[in-house]
């Protein structure tokens, strides 16, 4: 089995998309991470959900959670307001969230090691054709764990030998 076999379609946003729409996609689809592609369709960033939250929170709340516990509705509204009018590229600094990807022939253990090293719940699978990059899909940590536990990646128990 290779990365191309484990890759599944995964919702994505582009750097030009609205930041509020990107945050809504993460929330509505219960995604573990936000997959961001650039305008050429190449991986731009993979942002774990916890870091999407961090980018949306006011800095003073991240720095002092106790300060945030004394705030009420105004601070909650500030989260949405911080994203309003921004593109994904303006909202998420790329240097903090490099795009994680593997080629189609990567082995499951290679993908898992990349996830473990980078604390990412998602890795994109790409194929290069010269200068062109094609997204084949993404492998989630849940998909990999299913593969390792069952040998099939389907979430079912393998038949006894």
How would you describe this structure to a colleague?
This protein has 161 residues and is of the alpha/beta class. The protein has a single domain (3-150), classed as CBS-domain (Roll), CATH 3.10.580. It is 42% helix and 20% strand. The protein is built from nine helices and six strands; from the N terminus they run αβαββαααααβαββα. It has helices at residues 3-6, 19-28, 49-56, 59-63, 65-69, 73-83, 88-91, 108-118, 141-150; strands at residues 13-14, 33-37, 43-48, 101-102, 122-129, 132-140. It has a three-stranded mixed β-sheet with strand order 1-2-3. The chain has a three-stranded mixed β-sheet with strand order 4-5-6. β4, α8 and β5 (122-129) form a beta-alpha-beta unit. α8 (108-118) packs across α9 (141-150). The longest helix is centred in the middle third of the chain and has 11 residues, at 73-83. The two termini are 19 Å apart. 27% of the residues are buried.
What's the short story on this structure?
The chain is α/β, with parallel strands linked by helices and 161 residues long.
In which order are the strands of the major sheet placed? 1-2-3
What share of the residues does DSSP label as strand, in percent? 15-25%
Domain unit count: 1
> Helix proportion of residues, in percent?
40-55%
**Number of contiguous helices:** 9
**What kind of sheet is the major sheet?**
3 strands, mixed
Rg (CA only): 18 Å
Highest-level CATH class: Alpha Beta
